[in-house]
Amino acid sequence: MSLDVLLGLQWGDEGKGKIVDVLTPDYDVIARFQGGPNAGHTLEFNGQKHILHLIPSGIFHPDTLNIIGNGVVLDPIIFKKEVLNLLSNGVDVKSKLVISRKTHLILPTHCALDAAQESSKGSSKIGSTLKGIGPAYTDKIARQGIRVGDIHSSDFQERYDRLKGIHEDLLAWSGQETEISAREKEWFEAIDFLKTFKLVDCEYLVDQILAEERTFLAEGAQGSLLDVDFGSYPFVTSSNTVCAGACTGLGVAPSRINKVYGIFKAYCTRVGSGPFPTELEDHTGEQLRKQGHEFGSTTGRPRRCGWLDLVALKYTVMLNGVTELIMTKADVFTDIDTIKIATSYIINGKKSKHFPFDPVQEITPVYTELPGWKVDISSIRTIGDMPPELSSYISYIEKELGVPIRWVSVGPDREAIIKIPSLAHQPK
Ligand code: GDP
Ligand code: IMO
Ligand code: MG
To answer: Is 73 in contact with 36 (CB distance < 8 Å)?
Structure first.
């Protein structure tokens, strides 16, 4: 038996939470494999909106097992808040969630270091969510991190003190005085809370699940253009957000991956700093932000908006081996007369279809124009009811990317989705 992977193909916030929620009835298990509380995955159903940061998006379904994999970095304070919030909404998290012993912990000093590093960068700051992600992964790679499985060891406090000491030296060196004692107390209380959860050897559990032929979906966080190796470096996150990250982040072999669902918005957004070739710093960009409610689910920051970028999308489809595409937020284009899609870049006077090594340089996108649909599509549920302009938009993208679009999302709610049967829109 194999597992499927679902991931974002742009700069995050493509609607992964919503789509995982839509797909969960088909899966026995949902697992997060990288990232941490920098993620904000939104699900909407029964008139209620839920934002998840650390907990996989399968948690609302009664019979689904949810796994936090070893590739995730976990802040116990945020974890506790999220679990209690879900409990107050009647979701029994404890019976449906397990955590890998090898998941690394985010310490209060990781968050302080994140803030210190960002402020030292001045105008070239990354625009980090300041959740301690970069420093926690740094310690993992430096072989000095603390893992969830360590919370039960007798020398846990000593390990914590040792790592905190290293961080305090770094903070003092950077001239950033930070007071963390209140947060530290909260952190240790949250560690006690974490001790009541079931910890697992994720790699063995995944193997067992696949041997039992249970269906399994790995849920990506962030997006491929934020990948630490292949994204718009250095304006990226600190994990491998591409499909390969599911292998190392869960302990599963590449040969066991079957479908790879790639999610993209009908346009593009980015929150935080860094290159964005098709960014619209005009009225249309403002219109997309307003219509699409483009404000960060984790930080509330306004998201930068721009046209769909097929150069970038082709790159991330390639990196991930995407087998099925899912397009979200098609409803946001309702008031747009003409939609543009970038099909190549002009870099240093030369036309290119490659996502460049250094996207910070001057890039002029070359656009194709397609007519907008100019009607409210948010209540459409079948392919037959789609306006012809939307069908043409879908066909154009499929043809360019060579991968079929199987789902089109037309609103935030679980129900606002159009399934495209496999033979209906085959790319030519
Ligand atoms: P994620 O991080 O990929 O899970 O995405 P976020 O939850 O951060 O951001 C996506 C936002 O768009 C959320 O507010 C969703 O409720 C919303 N959303 C998802 N799909 C659609 C859609 O098709 N149309 C509209 N209008 N909103 C959507
Ligand atoms: P989801 O899973 C959008 C961005 C930050 C910043 C950069 C590095 O909801 O799609 P970090 O905190 O990781 O050090 O920040 O990455 N970023 C995201 N942008 N969606 C996310 O997650 C993001 N997680 C991190 O804004 O530019
Ligand atoms: Mg998000």
So the answer is: yes
- DSSP strands (E only) in 267-307: 268-270, 304-306
Q: Kindly give the distance from the C-alpha atom of residue 38 to the centroid of ligand 2, in angstroms, as a whole number.
A: 6
CB of 134 sitting under 6 A from ligand 2: yes
Specify whether 13 is catalytic.
Answer: yes
Tokens of 16: 């992964």
- What's the CA gap between 313 and 107, in Å, rounded? 35
CA of 149 to the centre of ligand 1 (A): 34
Q: How far is the CA of 297 from the centre of ligand 2 (A)?
A: 10
For residue 41, indicate whether it is catalytic: yes
Spatial neighbors of 225 by CB under 8 A, at least 6 apart, are 9, 10, 11, 231, 232, 236, 312, 316
Which alpha helices (H) appear in 89-155, and where do they start and end? 108-121, 133-141
Note the ligand closest to the C-alpha atom of 409.
1
Q: In 10 A of CB 282, how many CB atoms? A: 8
Contacts of 404 (CB under 8 A, 6+ apart): 324, 325, 398, 420, 422, 425, 426, 427
Local confidence pLDDT in tens for the 428 residues of the chain: 899 999 999 999 999 999 999 999 999 999 999 999 999 999 999 999 999 999 999 999 999 999 999 999 999 999 999 999 999 999 999 999 999 999 999 999 999 999 999 999 888 899 999 999 999 999 999 999 999 999 999 999 999 999 999 999 999 988 877 788 889 999 999 999 999 999 999 999 999 999 999 999 999 999 999 999 999 999 999 999 999 999 999 999 999 999 999 999 999 999 989 999 999 999 999 999 999 999 987 788 899 999 999 999 999 999 999 999 999 999 999 989 999 999 999 999 999 999 999 877 789 999 999 999 999 999 999 999 999 999 999 999 999 999 999 999 999 999 999 999 876 555 54
Ligand 1: nearest atom to the Cα of 328: 23
Per the CB < 8 A criterion, the answer to whether 135 and 117 are in contact is: yes
pTM (whole model) above 0.90:
yes
